[in-house]
Each structure stands twice: as C-alpha cells, then as structure tokens.
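Note on ligand handling. Small-molecule inputs were canonicalized before submission; formal charges were left as drawn, and no protonation-state enumeration was performed. Where a ligand contained multiple stereocentres, the stereochemistry in the source SMILES was retained. For calcium ion, this procedure yielded the string shown in the input block below.
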Amino acid sequence: MKKIINRIVIGLLIIGFVSNSFYHMSTSADISSDYEPYVMAPLTKITDWSSFTNQLETLKENGVHAITTDVWWGDVESEANNQFDWSYYKQYAEVVKDAGLKWVPILSTHQCGGNVGDDCNIPLPDWIWNLDSHDTLTQKSETGYINKETLSPWANQIIETQYQELYQSFAQHFSQYKETIDKIYISTGPAGELRYSSYASSDNWNYPERGKFQAYSDIAKQDFRESMKQKYDNLSQLNTAWETNLTSWNQVSPPTDGNQFFTSGAAYQSTYGDDFLTWYQHVLTNHLSLVADIAHSNFDDVFHVPIGAKIAGIHWKMNDPQMPHAAEYSAGYYNYSQILDQFKASDLQLTFTALEMDNSNAETSPYYSEPKTLVTQIASLAADKKITINGENALAISSNDANYSISRYQNIAQHLFNEDFKGFTLLRLQNIVHENGSPTNEMNRFINILGVTPIQVNFIVKNAPTSYGDTVHLTGNRWEMGKWNSPNGQNIKLSWDSSNQDWRGSAYIAADRYYEMKAIIVGANGEIKQWEPGANHTWASPHHSTNYTIEW
Ligand SMILES: [Ca+2]
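Structure output:
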C-alpha cells in the first residue's frame, strides 16, 4: 500500500512539473475520446430539399457527426409576438434525421447579415422594437450609431420574456427530435457571440480598427453611474480613486475621448479605466447568465443535451504598441478568465473560433494580430476551469492551392489535439460539398486531418535504454502525436510499467489513418536525450482500439 501511495505522489509531482511548462493543459497529445467533427450549414435558407438531402448523406458517408444550423428568430416569430411558425425548421430536422446525422440548432436571436462572411439578411422580428424604448432595446456606439443586430444587454426584462417564450415554444415543437438534437447553442450577441456590436460595418467599421464602445444609450450610461454609486458611495471617494474633481454624478460617463482613452494610458493604468472596463464586461456576463438560465430551464428536462455559447476571436490589435487589446476591450473582453468563470457557473460549453489562423501579422501595423496566441490562451483557461471547449474556423477554407488549405487544417489540428478541444465545427457546408451532393476537393483534406474517429491505442515501448529520471515518449507525423516533437505540440507520454518492465501509455489517435512514429527518451529536465534509431515506424491504424508495440 505504501509503495502505491509513494508512486501516486511521485506521479503527481511529475504531472505538476510538466503541466507548468505546457499551458496547464493535459500533458499528452491526444484526440479527445469523444471528439466529433461538425459542419456548419449555410446561413441562407434551403430551397432545394433533395439537393440538401444529398449533401447531408455525403457528410454522413464521410464521418461527419452533426450539422449545425442557425434557427433564426426573425424567421420563426416574424408575424407577431408569440405567433410562431416552425414549419421550415421541422422539415429541416426531419431531413437531418433521415440522413442519419445529428443536429445542433443555434437559437439565433441575432440578425443574419451585417457581419464578415454573411450572405443573408434576416433582421430581428419587427414588432419587438415596439415593446420598449429604442434606448433600452438597442446598443448605441461612441459615435451615436444605433445598432439593432441584437437586443441590447440592458433590455433584460424584454429578453427574459421573449427568450423564455421562444425557447419554450422550441422545446414544445422539437421534443420529438430529441434523439436527433445533439447540443443546443444559445446566441448572446451579434453573430451569436457574447460581445457588443463594436465592429459593425454598418457603423463604418473596417478591419482592423479597434471598434467602438457600445455604452452610450441613456440606460447604459445610467447603469454605469449606478454601478459606480454602489462602488464608491459618494463622489468624494470616487474623485479620490479616479483622481478627478467631478461635482455631479451626471459627470460620471463612459469614455468620451475615443482612441485617447487607450493612447493616453487611461484604459490600462487608471482606476477609472479599470472600473469602466470591468463594468462593461460585467454587463455581458450578466446577460450570459440570464440567457443560460432561460435555456437550462426550458431545455434540460426535454433534451438532456449540453448547452453551448460562443465568444468571438478578436485577434487584431492584441499586440498594438499604442493600444494593446483595444479591439477586445471595445467588444467587452477585458478579462477572459472572468468571462469563462461565467461559462462555468452557467454550465455552458464554450465554442471558440479562428483556429485556422496564424500569428504572421503579430508585428505588422495596423493588424498586430495574434489569433494563434489567443486560441491557446482561451483553451488553456478552459482547461484550467474544466470547461468543455469546441473549435471553429473564422473564415471559409476554400482554395485552389491545396497546400494553403492543408496548412489551415493543420493549424486547426494542432489546437484541437494538443489543447483539449472536444469538437470542431467547419464553416461551411458549401466548401466541402457541391450542390449536387458530390464532395469538393476540400472534403478529403478536411476529413483526413480533422474528420477523425478516435480509437484508444495502448502503446508499449520495450528495451528503451533509459536511465533514472528519464521518460519515454512517442511522437509522429500527425498533430495527435505532437507532429515530430513540434514546439506547438505535445508528445504521447508513456510511464514505466514495473510488472512488465517496459514503457506504456494509452492515447486516442485516429482510426484508419497513416502514421509514422518514433520513440524518444526525455531526460528529467524535459530535454530530448535520444531518438529511437533506425527508420520511422509506419502504421495504418485500424478501425478499433488496439495495442501497438515498439521494440527499441
Ligand atoms: Ca414572444
């Protein structure tokens, strides 16, 4: 018994040591054991159901698990309040079910259109704008633009009633499809993402500008004042903290100096900046909490599936020397850890995007874009907090240049299989399947790298010439094996098995794929001491779990 405890303690020490050097994530390359590939449906509505059926059957044949679909509020409740028409989406669910696929509906309470890559125009139901004042219902930007992509996060009462009615009606009408529905996404902002409408082209935004704060409706400004009254109690204490000489609460306001708020350093170094940005984000996380509660209360007992929500991949300006993170701050992302805490508290899965992108413009003005860093940061936080994370690509992957496309899928695979993602949703259907149902050139690339089925393999390495303190790892040609010991990947780590006197470990890799691999000996300092000599092992993985033994 004592021996076992000692071994556990030593094991824990080793895990602790290694995890510090690898973003606190699982320390082995691996495909998540329940990994699934998903495909995002077109934004526009299906008009040719027989073509769509052919497309879905092709997805199914290629191992895609589910299709993810926007269910537009502006479609189903457009006529009048509580006059729902689900007929289109019922037909949709029926077709998905018949194709043998699972379905992931997104309850899209945002407008379709007005965002990057949108090819549709489905505004919110008209009648909602009569339920309260525009000041309450809409977001108002720094430059006075009124945004109607979603209800504003200050429209709590309207949201509570309307989302409740919408979700309840969805649950009633789709409970018969509960075997088909795999997960349900809620929309908590523009493009379905928990954020403000800070970067809307309708508000004259162009990439890669920082965007605009959306805290200038009267109700938003009043809310900020009230929040500061609660925090400081009286103006004199606020003046001390902010180093100001305000004489009236009415002078307490979101920033009115545009970029200066950032370039002056106020956003980064002043108590005022911290107070404003903390409050601005808090309004979003409150909104997330509210919508998640409505979703759980309507869906959990009916569908018994996970509820998911998204945050946006705001990768530009991250590294801007004049205004670092200004685009994220303007969208409401001030402290990702606290945002993810709300995901955890609200029992939500998280979807994050931009997995295909790289950091090639990290130092390039005006982009200063670091999507790869951002994805790893978010995945690391999700792993720390034990939040299930799923990935998406930000922009369609479709190229005549096969190498370019493959490099995008490889970027995605690196994140998925080294940073503990549970699933991946490819945008979009039309890039991998032609209208007649035949696969495009992208299909094979996508399926080979990302459309994988995990199988558990027990790896065994015999006769490795290790010394005390060494460990044996495996690495190979694919990201689920750490891509030949790439700095962005992780190897498959084995542990000493004293009864068999060899090194063993199990990992999930892909069924039916071609692998090349080698064992390596890693010293106690984490550095590679020795590669297995000779040619690479080559292996066509089987369809089911198995053992794989290497004689060093
Ligand atoms: Ca309603």
